[in-house]
Amino acid sequence: MKLLILDAGHCLSLALVREANRRSDTELVIEQGTVATPAMLERVAPDAVIVPPLSQPLELTPLAIKDHADAVEACLDACLAAEVALVWCVSDQLYEEGFDGAIDEHVVPAPRDEGLRRLVQTGDRIRAEHARHLIVRLGPLFALEGSHAWLNELIDSLVTNQPVRAAEDVIFSPTSADAVAMSLIGMLQQQACGANAWGAYHLAGTEPVSAFTFTSMVRTQLATHLEGRGETVALGEVTALNHHHDAKLRRVLNCRRVLDVFGVHQKPWRLEVGRMLDAWCLTRDGEPNADTGESGR
């Protein structure tokens, strides 16, 4: 199976490279840009194109969101012409106002924000025009390297004793980029074997938490790792932010369908963070073969 991955520096793209390097059944072609052109698809002849997600679109400008949506729709046109499957990963922030319970795949986001509505329009086009698509809605991604990685910037801030502010009243499911990469390749391998299970899926880590709780836990685990190495480091303090004073906003994705259809299990984000901190410590020691994406399977 050959996959074309766009946005080479994205944390998910880097995770896909690490996962593919562990396998003998998957070939990746990586492109720096964010658009798959007809000429590119003719040259590469992939089985599918994977478009990584925008991170935290609610914090981006309308122009940045429009540029991403336009790029995805250009990929859609190219994939339709070449009869190539399209995989588009999107942020859970499309569910702008959240839900009281877990959000099922059939619930199409209906945000009020103009930029988010533009992304929903792109999703509507994909669903209406391209039968061979996967729209994969993700919880907030974290990784140790690449753009939109979150965890790397968080660790850097903490070890340089910078204060970190994080929302306490928004509940979501942090999601390991490595776990998403493993799942996507597994899903596409099953599709290549005739699963024919196209559509929208949710993929996120287990145990919904607030950004404040996640950040505090990272700080605690980081302190434990450093103390175990005999290091005394003054870590930055974590303070809580509150944006929704009446009630907590919940963006918790129900990942039951991806389990039922593809057998993909959610990975506990606490274990993934611990694994990544182990890898970060190896990198801190300067070990040349430290693998920041070791899956631990």
UniProtKB/TrEMBL annotation:
Ranges for domain RmlD-like substrate binding: 69-279
Pfam families for this protein: RmlD_sub_bind
InterPro entries: NAD(P)-bd_dom_sf, RmlD-like-bd
Domain of life of the organism encoding this protein: Bacteria
Signal peptide residues on this chain, from the entry's feature table: none
Designated name of the protein: Sugar nucleotide-binding protein
